Amino acid sequence: MGKKTGKQTYYFTNPPVIISTGTVAGPIEGQGPLQADFDEILTDPRNNEKTFEKAERSILTRACQLALDHASCPTGEVDLFLAGDLLNQIISSNFTAATLNIPFLGLYGACSTAALGLGLGAMLLDGGFAGTVLTATSSHNSTAERQYRFPTEYGAQRRPYQQWTVTGAGAALLGYDRPGPKITAVTFGRVVDLGSTDPLNMGAAMAPAAADTIRQHFEDTGWDPNVFDLIVTGDLGKIGFELCREELAESGLKLGDNFSDCGIMIYDLDKQDVHAGGSGCAASALVTYGHLYKRFQRQEIHRILLVGTGSLHSTTSVQQGDNIPCVAHAIRIEA
Amino acid sequence: MGKKTGKQTYYFTNPPVIISTGTVAGPIEGQGPLQADFDEILTDPRNNEKTFEKAERSILTRACQLALDHASCPTGEVDLFLAGDLLNQIISSNFTAATLNIPFLGLYGACSTAALGLGLGAMLLDGGFAGTVLTATSSHNSTAERQYRFPTEYGAQRRPYQQWTVTGAGAALLGYDRPGPKITAVTFGRVVDLGSTDPLNMGAAMAPAAADTIRQHFEDTGWDPNVFDLIVTGDLGKIGFELCREELAESGLKLGDNFSDCGIMIYDLDKQDVHAGGSGCAASALVTYGHLYKRFQRQEIHRILLVGTGSLHSTTSVQQGDNIPCVAHAIRIEA
Q1: pLDDT tens digits, one per residue of A251-274
Q2: What kind of architecture, by CATH, is found in domain B185-334?
Q3: Region A2-175: CATH code
Q4: If you count residue pairs, one on A and one on B, with CB atoms under 8 Å apart, how many are there?
């Protein structure tokens, strides 16, 4: 049974365990600093499929299979599958769900999907509605870029503040009675719209939503941010991350060296040509389910706050002159 | 706390109540047989907005406000907002969430969204994660048609088996300690892909998913279909509905006169030029939150099974030659 504390935060009576994870990273992500912590790395971004969209769903399905295999869990034992992605009508997730044959709840949270799936999955487990939940998400540079901006084949010049959509997929199997880090609290965010209108600068658009949820989490729990080994936003990138840090500091919450961003961590920003860092659902999924999950296993970290961030615009809303509404969800994970 | 029965069905320890609803119907829906049961009817499909997309979100926001007003519930008392729609990146829901300022979980289930929101909302309430949940969805003929098919301004000739995307929005406020029909069981569906490829014949594509979930619900519960005043699919339309009935009969489940479809009920198929009937998220939302909710209030019905149906394709997946995967979620509602 859940217990709400403060305005937006929930504790669990019986905190669900992240039993296993599965990750597949794209070629560029596989050359980055976290390469050793991904299960599989693509050599071909098309993964032997005819289209990039089919490639994206193939790696999402593969990540799910890896998570299931790592726990020796047959699909028939999974009660619910929660997934979403960036593509219109979340087709990567829908087609993966058709393969898995597990009752499916489709999510849309843009790049906050990993956090949304973890939080919702944990609630359904703690609420007694499932014994095992699989949650997953993906993004692909060539599918997202052509849907939101330009086909990558055009070779369009990118602005220095733009982020690089991460190619990859991550899945996590949640349940009980197995070892693993636990999901102990969740803060679901409100949609924040501070008037940002540039879809090429999503980090700046998402920063206020991230700050809002982080502030709310600490207000609701009364915890000291220093008890966390890591407070990690989803994919703000260099510019959005600094804006978020500044906004938090201005409101009296000064975060220290334990504050970072998956979009910054996943690449070597000095050597890899990714401008402001990574974005896309796979940014936080690869970092959390790959790198951070393995750090938990190696007992290098014991308590983190994952703050998934999502930019909730579409090309149509941008073309019609709308602002970019954003959201962030915070998930506390403890050894 | 939830209790799973059979493979895919959940019962509630403390069944949540549908405290209030809010509905806004489009002009054509407002001329149909259920007009008296909608809260508001648009005279202008653009609802004084500059674009159809802005009109869609305006009626979604209005439906939410109506549901809150009918229960005299300020937004500050709602714990979670669950919503989704057909537009790319569910922008109608995102912008409505930005207005409401309630922690937001974005859903994607295509036309099954009303059922998905009801089922998930009920689980979060029964699991102790919320005292009050608002769930809503919308569709708009002119936004969906131009996104999925042709802009309505083209006046493209429609095929006789096509359905008409319903313009409308519906919202439901779920909670406790108030009178109203209760959500007593939920069967979440698997994604079914039987090889259908025609996106103009979505009823036929969705029929097997609807049949799968209905069959599973009765297998899981062991109930007799005749105890329901109504077993109502989301938006199969005339053709999909007959296919679903046939498929169920072939597998030994003969449904009688209490079996119907929201897409058929919402229009007068003899007089209104909507071909095979209604489709879109608003089809089941308007019928359930408008017509059926009021029938519960008038004590004309006491037990229904809503089977929301969703076609999970995108224009990209269709263009790439993919099949159309579909899903259906069943929600038992009892007085």
Answers
A1: 999 999 999 999 999 999 999 999
A2: 3-Layer(aba) Sandwich (3.40)
A3: 3.40.47.40
A4: 190
